[in-house]
Amino acid sequence: MTTGSRSPDALVRLVACCALQYPGDHFHDELPRLRAALAGAPAEPAALLGAFLDHAESLSPIELCAEYTGTFDTRNRRCLYLTWWVDGDTRRRGLSLVRLKRIYRDFGLEFAGEELPDFLPVALEFAALREEAGTELLQEHRAGLELLRLALAESASPYARVLEAVCSTLPGPSPETRAEAKALARSGPPQELVGAGSPPAPFGPGIDIGTAVGTTIGADRPADLPWPTFAERRTA
Questions:
Q1: Range of the domain at 91
Q2: Is residue 193 part of a domain?
């Protein structure tokens, strides 16, 4: 995967994909490559992402990790898992996760990440690698993306700039209020719990969670950007 073969919007999505993952100890080491990738991105989202990278660079690795974990929390309506915004903590969410895994496979990509397939950075990488299908997928979850963007802005989080950059790659203007964002969806996340105490298997009987969201195919680290999630499918 090389940045030279990617469109400007794809570069925005790839950098945002990296910025929205847990930073760990090595995020600061990747900053030069992330900034270099932004050289080919549109001016406005590049400025937004550049401002976030400046902020990240001003913090120590420990401080940045603490900020990340303190920012993204379903209790504060700041959730990075796309199907949560549609399905909440219901049985239906398991089927949505399986559907996402199938979509990735249908477009020739093998999911090779340790996260769930609805994790926003996963969807962003897919949307960079398969732009038309990925844009459609992000549009399907546009209401959740915009509600997350607004929640981050309301909390004055630097991560709001990253979400603003992501939303700028999608058709049409972003909603200005929560009411406008909620109007994009038929309803908010359902509140029905999967079950009390120990929940049943989220993918229903006969479906193993490791099979549904895991992988047997690894992905090589790309030369341009860190944390690959996908590998091209290997076919017999």
A1: 3-185+202-227
A2: no
For residue 187, give both structure tokens: 């309803």
Pick the residue with more confidence: 193 or 66? 66
Token pair recorded at residue 55: 């902020």
pLDDT tens digit string along 11-68?
999 999 999 999 998 899 999 999 999 999 999 999 999 999 999 999 999 999 999 9
Q: Are 215 and 234 in contact (CB under 8 A)?
A: no
User: How many structural domains comprise the chain?
Assistant: 1
Q: Report the DSSP beta bridge partners of residue 109.
A: 232
Q: How many helices (H) and strands (E) does the chain have?
A: 12, 2
Give yes or no for a contact between 108 and 148, defined as CB atoms under 8 angstroms apart: no
Tokens 């969806």 sit on residue: 185
Mean per-residue pLDDT for 134-138? 94
Residue 64 belongs to domain with CATH number: 1.10.3480
Q: Taking a C-beta distance cutoff of 8 angstroms, is the pair 163, 154 a contact?
A: no
CB burial of 147-171 (b: ≥16 within 10 Å; e: otherwise) equals bbbbbbeeeebbbbbbbbbbbbbbe
Check if the beta carbon of residue 20 is closer than 8 Å to that of residue 120.
yes
pTM of the model: 0.78
The confidence band for 6, taking pLDDT boundaries of 50, 70 and 90, is confident
Question: Is residue 20 included in any domain, yes or no?
Answer: yes
In a domain, 235, yes or no: no
Q: Is the pLDDT of residue 220 over 70?
A: no
| Residue 21: inside a domain | yes
Asked whether 167 and 174 are in contact (CB, 8 A), the reply is yes
